[in-house]
């Protein structure tokens, strides 16, 4: 996925009724994949103890999973405020999104220059990279992440 794509919010729940409630609010049920980290741990323990629990997850570009993603944050927060029926001012978050979009655009541009081909609006990795191309890719990605002031560094 590209950073230009909207973040889709998925809902996961430990019981069918709660999942139905989530999907009735417009969330997509997560039909495949896994939930790792603290989110997965909490849901797993809740399910083992028959405690109703839910988790909202938003999509983001695979190359940016370790970067702050205010767009995904906003998507989850908007879904949660809709579920709870409360109003929230997203002005600050919208400003953060604008700033991060510029950084992600720079990363995608650099990735596009490095043995990556464009397929519509999505980036597709070239199937076969030689060792020197992989090294060039890693170096260029590190440079792009540094310029984006990313916590990810080689």
Look at the helices and sheets and give the structural class: alpha+beta
Main sheet: which strands, in order across? 2-1-3
Shape: globular
- Share of helical residues: 40-55%
Question: H/E order of the elements?
Answer: EHEHEHHEEH
Number of domains: 2
* Mean pLDDT over all positions: 82
Give the C-alpha Rg: 18 Å
Q: Low-confidence segments, ≥5 residues, pLDDT <50?
A: 118-124, 150-154
Kindly estimate the percentage of residues that lie in beta strands according to DSSP. 5-15%
What does this structure look like?
This protein has 154 residues and is α+β, with helices and mostly antiparallel strands. The protein has two domains: 76 residues, no CATH class; 57 residues, no CATH class. The protein contains five helices and five strands, in the order E-H-E-H-E-H-H-E-E-H. The strands form two sheets. The chain has a three-stranded mixed β-sheet. It has a two-stranded antiparallel sheet with strand order 4-5. Strand 1, helix 1 and strand 2 form a beta-alpha-beta unit. Helix 3 packs antiparallel against helix 4. The C terminus is likely disordered.
Provide a short characterization of the protein structure.
The chain is α+β, with helices and mostly antiparallel strands. It is 49% helix and 13% strand. The protein has 2 domains: 9-84, no CATH class; 91-147, no CATH class.
Entry keywords:
single chain; 154 residues; alpha+beta; 2 domains; 3-stranded mixed β-sheet; two-stranded antiparallel ribbon; 5 helices; 5 strands; 13% strand; globular; disordered C terminus
Secondary-structure map:
Blueprint: E1 9-13, H1 16-24, E2 28-29, H2 37-48, E3 54-58, H3 70-84, H4 91-113, E4 116-119, E5 122-125, H5 131-147
Parallel strand pairs: 1-2
Antiparallel strand pairs: 1-3, 4-5
Helix pairs in contact: 3-4, 4-5
């Amino acid at each position: 996925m590209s950073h230009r794509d909207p973040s889709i919010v998925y809902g996961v729940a430990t019981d069918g009724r709660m999942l139905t409630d989530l999907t009735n609010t417009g969330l997509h049920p997560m039909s495949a994949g896994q939930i790792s980290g603290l989110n997965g741990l909490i849901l797993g323990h809740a399910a083992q103890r028959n405690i109703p629990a839910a988790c909202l997850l938003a999509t983001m570009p695979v190359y940016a999973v370790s970067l702050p993603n205010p767009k995904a944050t906003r998507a989850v927060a908007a879904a949660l405020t809709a579920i709870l029926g409360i109003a929230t001012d997203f002005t600050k978050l919208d400003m953060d999104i604008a700033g991060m979009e510029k950084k992600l655009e720079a990363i995608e541009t650099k990735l596009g220059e490095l043995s990556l081909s464009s397929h519509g609006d999505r980036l597709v990795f070239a199937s076969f990279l030689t060792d020197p191309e992989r090294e060039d890719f890693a170096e260029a990605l590190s440079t792009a992440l540094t310029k984006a002031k990313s916590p990810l560094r080689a």
